[in-house]
Amino acid sequence: MTVSIEESWKKPLEHEFEEPYFKGLVKFVKEEYLHYTCYPPGKQIFAAFDHSPFEKTKVVIIGQDPYHGPNQANGLCFSVTDGIQHPPSLINIFKEIEADLGKPYPKSGNLERWADQGVLLLNATLTVRAHEAGSHQRKGWETFTDNVIKAISKEREDIVFLLWGGYAKKKSKLIDVDKHHILTSGHPSPLSANRGYWFGNKHFSATNTLLRKMGKTPIDW
Predict the structure, then answer these.
(1) In this prediction, what percent of the chain has a pLDDT beyond 70?
(2) pTM, full prediction
(3) What's the chain look like in SS3?
(4) Domain 7-214, what architecture?
(5) Where does the Uracil-DNA glycosylase-like domain lie (predicted)?
(6) Which residue ranges make up each domain of the chain?
(7) What is the pLDDT, as a whole number, of residue 54?
């Protein structure tokens, strides 16, 4: 079975695409997209991988579920299509960047500009039915994306993982802490941010400090 994913990811993930769970997942997703409106558009399901090739990935940010409103999800966690109103979590991400790095708040919420610099913006679940949050959870996506994290942990070194919120923090058990760097904080959602668990984490400057120490180009957030 052929999966349309960026070429460099095919070898580290080659066994996944032949696994029974993945074949069942593909069947489920095809049926959902056939009978319901689903997001992101089919060609963008693997956009996170398309923009950040395996060997060029330097930073991994883990989200949970794609946005489920019209024209929002573009295959990258926390990101929205150009011209779409910024969701609350993304607003808080940009506010933290503004405070941390002094960068002006951007007009576009499209994070392809991060992904193209080697930031893998990985949702645990890569698809969703319109207006039904979590509707494609526990269908196999989490198995796949957990194995993506394991492959990065095993085959790469000195990746910076940003784990925001309880769900993402649980993924730390998949990461070899002797080889990689993990930064954790509360989630940027208003509920968490307003309780003081997000603002002031300085993850963006901290990530760039780590990248510079490793001789890598920092991210232009």
Answers:
(1) 99
(2) 0.96
(3) CCCCCCHHHHCCCCCHHHCHHHHHHHHHHHHHHHHCCEECCHHHCCHHHHHCCHHHCCEEEEECCCCCCCCCCCCCCCCCCCCCCCCHHHHHHHHHHHHHHCCCCCCCCCCHHHHCCCEEEEECCCCEECCECCCCCCCCHHHHHHHHHHHHHHHCCCCEEEEEHHHHHHHHHHCCCCCCEEEEECCCCHHHHCCCCCCCCCHHHHHHHHHHHCCCCCCCC
(4) 3-Layer(aba) Sandwich (3.40)
(5) 50-211
(6) 7-214
(7) 98
